[in-house]
């Protein structure tokens, strides 16, 4: 009797911004696959994904790096599909000509986002309100808040009536005290998955980001033609070089150092109960070699 192979359906939860779409869609378009696995995806704003990770909703989920110490027992961080700022990042914006008071009202994209933690460290007296990142620019324009931190594509496309009060990159440099890239977002995988499967998932997602980078122009064109991104071709090209670049394929030594610095700052300022070293929580890929030796 012939052996029947059952396909496992695996859901990847990511944000709707262009870098996450770009880094996943080599799988969606069938350019990358995994044996006996059918991938599907769902897109939600980053804070909703952070909350879903806190509640253990998905096996594989995009998160803000600042969230990770809160979920370290349930999830392992993946080495791939990471977004860092390097001389750039989220922007604190306001209406042109407005002078912000010490206790200005600000809109942030979510309590557990990296930019929110850095902002709250730098501006302890600001009155914070949280909203979907897509609503922040309009909230500032309408005067519902005095300022807002823009993330994702909006850092390139915000209204001419607005101006940058401060770059989150500058805040990061002042707090980190070193020339480190700014850790923004990555992926996490549930620890309860079989280790050999977790290793396969990470390898597949890494290949997807590599293939996306190798075929950037073709993939970008397909995303635009199918209305899968919110920006035009020139903006998409610029945006991907910021947040879905060659440094997104797999974590480097300096990126590990930057994540650890972020966690150190969070612990120092009371956001975490303990100090976390990210490499202590990664998937032990050496298991595959040991298992096959």
Automatic annotation (TrEMBL):
Keywords: Lyase, Menaquinone biosynthesis. SUPFAM superfamilies: Periplasmic binding protein-like II. Coiled coil: none annotated. The active site is at residue 152. GO terms for molecular function: carbon-carbon lyase activity. Catalyzes the conversion of cyclic dehypoxanthine futalosine (cyclic DHFL) into 1,4-dihydroxy-6-naphthoate, a step in the biosynthesis of menaquinone (MK, vitamin K2). This is 1,4-dihydroxy-6-naphtoate synthase. The lineage of its organism: Bacteria, Pseudomonadati, Campylobacterota, Epsilonproteobacteria, Campylobacterales. The gene is mqnD.
